[in-house]
Every structure is written in structure tokens, then in C-alpha cells.
Amino acid sequence: MVLLQAKKLDSLMMNNDTQIIDLFCSDVSFGHSNGWIQNSEDFKKDFSSKKAVYKEIKQTEVSEIKKFKNTFSIRRKIKVSGLYKNQDFDMNLSLLEIWIKKKSQWKLWSRQSVEIKP
Fold it and tell me: Alpha-carbon distance 106 to 87, whole Å?
């Protein structure tokens, strides 16, 4: 079930769909591969301004899924391409995502990405 949420997250991000906010805990935190950290308000502002626009987000591997009570951690790899401040980018990322079950819904609580260099 939580893997379906991760795929939905990728799809909504790629389509720049504001429904993505529904997948987040109110105190969500994003650690980006460039060291940039976003909270929920930062994400909403940057997402609506289209600071980053994704052409492709493709999951290439799921290497670990762990469950503890109402929490899942997922380690997965994705290939992403798009525009960041009108600059093309194309990279492979390793992600660690923490998902928490809130009122029968899986919500993203934290996500850290690291660029995989060729």
C-alpha cells in the first residue's frame, strides 16, 4: 500500500498536481541532494511557482522496506529529469522516505535524496 503512495507521489510531482499536498504530513520535511531542506510551506510555495518542473520521474529500484508500528521507511532509486530555474537537469537519486499512517492514510513525513554519481 505504501509503495502505491510513493508511485502516486512521483506521478503528482511529475504532473505538477497540487493534490500532492494531500500526501504529506503537516510537518513534512524534504532534504534535497544539493543540501537544500524544505518544510511544507517552502514546498507549497516552490511547487506553485514551478521552480522545478519534472519531465520524468521513474522509479528504478526498491531496495528496502521496513515497517515499525504505523511507520514505514522505504529506500528506493529514481531517475529524474526536468528544469530547475530554467536549467535542464537529469540525475539518478537514492531516496529514503518515511511514511506514517494517519487516519488510515499513508502520509509522507520525511524524505531525503542523495544524487548517485555515475
Answer: 33
- Please give the model's pTM, rounded to 2 decimal places: 0.92
| Cell numbers given for 30 | 524534504
Contacts 24+ apart (CB under 8 A), 99-104: 99/2, 99/5, 99/6, 99/71, 99/72, 99/73, 99/74, 100/25, 100/70, 100/71, 101/70, 101/71, 102/25
pLDDT tens, N- to C-terminus, the chain (118 residues): 899 999 999 999 999 899 999 999 999 999 998 898 999 999 999 888 888 899 999 999 999 999 999 999 999 999 999 998 889 999 999 999 999 999 999 999 999 999 999 8
Rounded to whole angstroms, the Cα distance separating 48 from 68 reads 34
User: What's the gap between Cα 12 and its chain centre?
Assistant: 10
Spatial separation of the C-alpha atoms in residues 73 and 66, rounded to whole Å = 5
| Nine cell digits for residue 87 | 536549467
Q: Which of 75, 77, 57, 48 is nearest to 11 (CA)?
A: 57
